[in-house]
Design goal:
With 410 residues, the protein is of the alpha/beta class. It has two domains: 8-248, Peroxisomal Thiolase, Chain A, domain 1 (3-Layer(aba) Sandwich); 259-408, Thiolase/Chalcone synthase (Peroxisomal Thiolase, Chain A, domain 1). 33% of the residues lie in helices and 21% in strands. The strands form three sheets. Strands 5-4-6-8-1-9-15-14-10-11 form a ten-stranded mixed sheet, with helices on both faces. It has a three-stranded mixed sheet with strand order 2-3-7, with no helix packed on it. The protein has a two-stranded antiparallel ribbon with strand order 12-13. A hairpin with a 3-residue loop joins strand 14 and strand 15. The radius of gyration is 20 Å and the shape is globular. The relative contact order is 0.19. The model has no long low-confidence stretch (mean pLDDT 97).
Length: 410
């Protein structure tokens, strides 16, 4: 056990509404291409949503996919891609020393809604209820499906942390590597949220569901005319390992995880508290032994809700507002809110900036809200900068869970 062990990212596997691998995802972020479109969900009119298109059968047989879940399918695809991208000799690896740590917002709603709908077609006769329902709806389902698909016998579990879960999956992988529990971690977050109509109905009843005549413009963080969240599905899984081991095998290294923090607002079910967000960001910097001015990119969590964006703008302004070389951006403006995947997926979109030194912009920011004013907020067009040595990734969630993660260029 070495609690100071240096942990690095050596593989990235992702699926997003506007890209099915990191290269495609990054290209579309720099091109300003949205992945949001009109989507039909049960019992409601069309809504704006981020929908992923990927080959579910690249790593799964049809029988496996039929028995499993959409969340599991996304997790399998991203995990397989992360291992392939890492260059690890997976066949020779000790599968008992690989851990799977996946953040997720919620799980089971999709399958339960589907089963209730199905039996409604047969007079609610429960003999038509699927015998696969229980394994589909247990909280560890998505991580467990990965173990079955890949033959991994190390620890696996999901972490429920609302929309901060993607960051927490990565942080858990880091911690387990430092504790010596595993040699490799498949860590990140996934979301199948758009396949439950309940999430759309709930946000609509809260007055927090985005709407726009052009779905691609529905997600508009920090904009004066923002009117809510665009729900999206997606996933991102990283291969994490110890720096020494990665260097020994000549692995490509995307970056080093150098700082993080998790805390709680303890104030409200939904509304965030900028004071606790400030504490979270400052503690992450303290853990890394860095100052706010050392950061080069800050990825905002901003979901395009009225009060949520204002609170985050306050917190980022307090921590980074006086730093001239800190550039701020947002990824949800392209893909909507991928819930449990958001932290991991949004970090991935910024990682290539270590090499190309380009900050992707926030799109759909036509009329910046004065209450969300942030210096160095990159908008509409990419910005080339002198250097990118550190990326700071914010991810916050309901019931006041906050997370911050810092990645360093090697």
């Amino acid at each position: 056990m070495n609690l100071e062990e240096r942990i690095v990212i050596t593989g990235v596997g992702l699926v997003s509404p506007n890209g099915q691998n990191l290269t495609e995802f990054r290209a579309n972020l720099l091109a300003g291409k949205s992945g949001v479109r009109a989507f039909k969900t049960r019992y409601m009119e069309e809504v704006a949503a981020g929908v992923c298109e990927f080959d579910e059968f690249k790593y799964q047989r049809k029988k496996e996919r039929r028995r499993g879940t959409r969340a599991g399918s996304i997790a399998i695809y991203c995990s397989q891609e992360a291992i392939a991208d890492s260059g690890l000799d997976f066949e020779a690896a000790d599968k008992s020393r690989i851990g799977i740590y996946l953040g997720i917002t919620e799980h089971g709603n999709v399958e339960t809604e589907n089963e209730v709908y199905n039996i409604s077609q047969y007079g609610y006769d429960t003999k038509f209820w699927s015998h696969h329902h229980n394994p589909r709806t247990v909280a560890n389902n998505s991580a467990g499906e990965v173990t079955l698909n890949m033959g991994i016998t190390g620890p696996h579990y999901t972490l429920g942390a609302a929309c901060a879960a993607g960051n927490l999956g990565v942080i858990q992988g880091l911690q387990m590597l430092r504790l010596g529990e595993v040699d490799f971690a498949l860590a990140g977050g996934i979301s199948e949220s758009i396949h439950t109509f309940g999430i759309f109905a709930s946000f609509k009843s809260e007055g927090a569901l985005a709407s726009h005549h052009d779905p691609e413009k529905a997600s508009r963080p920090f904009d004066k005319k923002r009117n809510g969240i665009v729900c999206s599905e997606g996933g991102c899984v990283y291969t994490l390992e110890r720096l020494e081991a990665a260097q020994k095998r000549g692995a490509k290294i995307y970056g080093e995880l150098v700082g993080y923090h998790i805390n709680s607002d303890a104030t409200d079910l939904i509304l965030p508290d900028h004071r606790r967000q400030i504490e979270c960001m400052r503690m992450a910097l303290n853990r890394a032994g860095l100052k706010a001015g050392d950061m080069n990119i800050v990825n905002t969590h901003a979901t395009a809700t009225t009060l949520g964006d204002i609170e985050e703008a306050k917190s980022i302004g307090a921590v980074f507002g006086s730093e001239a070389g800190v550039w701020i951006n947002n990824t949800k403006s392209y893909i909507g809110h991928t819930m449990g995947a958001a932290g991991a997926l949004e970090l991935a979109g910024n990682l290539p900036a270590f090499e190309d030194k380009i900050v992707h912009p926030t799109i759909n920011l036509d009329e910046p809200d004065p209450q969300c004013a942030l210096p160095n907020l990159v908008a509409q067009e990419p910005r080339r900068v002198d250097k990118v040595d550190y990326i700071f990734n914010n991810s916050f969630g309901m019931l006041g869970v906050n997370s911050a993660l810092i990645v360093k260029r090697l």
